[in-house]
Amino acid sequence: MTERRSQTKPGGRTRRPGPATVIWGSIALFAVLFALFTYQLSAPGQPRQQVLVRKVVKRRVVTTVAPTPGESTVTSGPVVSATQPAAAAAPVTTSAS
Amino acid sequence: MSQHDLSFEAMGSHVRFLIGEPADEAPSAREAAERARAFIAEFDRELSRFKPDSGLSRLNADERERVPASALLRRAVSAGLEAAERSGGLVDPTLLREIEATGYATSRAGMGGAPLAEALERAPERRPARPDPEARWRRISVDDERGEVVRPPGVFFDTGGAGKGLAADMVAERLRGYSRYVVDCGGDIRIGGADALLDPYEVYVEHPLTGKRAFVLRLSRGGVATSGLNVRIWRDEDGRYAHHLLDPATGEPAWTGLVGATALGDTAVEAETLSKAALLSGPEGAREALAGQGGLIVHDSGRVEPVGPLARPPRIRLPKLEGNGAAA
Fold it and tell me: What's the CA gap between B227 and B259, in Å, rounded?
């Protein structure tokens, strides 16, 4: 009751905005915000959204056997080298050596 | 998601690198693997005790107290001293003459070992190894400012206690720009990379008596290492079985009731130190040594015992519900 009384105080008229004002105001606000975001994304020196490109590699195993360069006493036996999908790698094993 | 897989023999062991995709500026995984292999060759040239012209051999042959040493040799000496400190002297880097006296004076790479089961039957009474009361390693120091290793002549140094772990860690330092990696230097392993956090590696632990898989670890980062009696075991001139893990107090091979120990650590050097300390300590001491980071011990009987965090069942943590109790 107290609130209502304060709103209808004599001499204190409240003007409501018309529907056109609300619609055009909303459109203007959207346009300003849209322009601001567009500027931020395209401005040089600003951090851009990162796009992560992942290669989908189908199973392709390339194996080369090469002699060890340098002294033969440093390493011995063949060198086995391969690039392959992570899931295709032979398991890692820890054992005494 | 691919990775490069490179394997070769070096340092008397099997070495393997698994390297994922490079960051923008880093060279390809294949090139990184080749560079790492060249580094391992340099590491072996400088630190092998079997090569008379290596930095390590020159250090041990030098009669001066202060000996100029390369940065790599100084780092290896520092790692050996840290291993000794961390293990209370059990992983002792000064047992060079003792290991040679047991019959391990030349590389045993590619040599067949003696049967471990038979060696266990004939081994002396089991007891934990103890540190050398003299603690000769405390008389060794590294002066990085002057580029020297300081020690009394007659105190010899051997990288065996932490060498392969150090090699794995130093290669790993070179692979920080890669999405994931495994560096395996003869079973002393270092794992890292952001992708490994999301998709950890499975690491199989080999049983020292059967050669079969004893345990499977899932690791996203850090080190893991295994020490065991199943390799580098031989018969000495008297027909007695000997191996390369010595009791510092006696200078003789240690028979402690364990045939293998696997340890986890923040680095491969730490894991290697802990695995050796655990094996030398015997079952009771090993449980204590591995309690913090976790590990695995294999008894003479072949029984596999997970220790520390590995012995505890995985816990599922539910988020706490906060509020006035209505949500509970």
Answer: 8
